[in-house]
Amino acid sequence: MFKIEGVWFSYGKEYVLQGIDLEVRKGERVVLMGGNGCGKSTLLKMMDGLIFPKKGRVLWKGRDLTPRSLKKMEGEFRRAVALLFQDVEVMLFNPTVEDEIAFGPRQLGLEDVEDRVKKWGKKLGILPFFRRSPAELSIGEKKKVALASILVVEPEVLLLDEPLSNLDPRSTGEIIDLLWDYRATTVVATQNLSLAPELGERAILLSEDHRVIYDGDFEDLFSREKLLLEANLLHTHRHRHGGMVHRHFHPHDWE
Prior knowledge:
The chain is 33% helix and 29% strand. By secondary structure, it is α/β, with parallel strands linked by helices.
C-alpha cells in the first residue's frame, strides 16, 4: 500500500525524519511509536500527501506520491486515504456536527450521504450532538466527530495520530473495538505503551534522532529496555511502595 524509500524531511534547517525506509502492506495494522518530536506526525502527513520529502520518495500503490501526481489522482487518493490529526480542532469547521460528518462525502460526490452520516454517527455514539456546533463539545467528543468525519467515506487506509488521547476509559474501549472491526490498512501513531498492542500487530519505533530503530512485533520490542529508553518511551521517577520510597523505569501510558 505504501513504500517509503530513503526519506528525509526538515522544517527549516532541522531534519525531523532521517533516512526512513519502510513498507506498509495492504491490510496491515501498524503502530508508529516514539516520544514527542520524533517525527510520527510528520510521517503520517507525508503518507497523506500533505507534505513531501526533501530527499527520497513515498509510493502509494506503486505510484510516486508527488504534488504533480497527486493532482492527477486527487479524488481517488482522498477517497482511499484518510488522516486523523492529533489536534482535531483543525479538522472541525462546519456549523453543526451533522454537517461536519457530511462534508467529506459531499465533496467527493458520494451517494447516500445521509445514510452514511447516520451510520457513523450511531457507531460513534454522537447522534445526540448532530444539531450542535462542534465548538460546543468536549475534546473527547470532538475526537469522535473528527473520527466519524473520516470513517464516513470508508477509506482503504486510516492514518491516525494519537486517536485515543483525551478519551475516557469507556470511549477508549469503544474506539479500539471499532478500529478492529473496521477492515482497513491502519497506521496509528502513539506513545502509550500499554495500549499500543491493542491498536495493531506490528510496531515501528522512531528514535529521538528521527530514525527507525525497530520494526517488528511487540513482545520482542517490550523486552528491549535500551531501545525504549532511546526512544524516550520509558522514564524514571521517585514513588512510594508502602513505607519505602524508590525509583525505577515506568512506561509512558498517556498520549
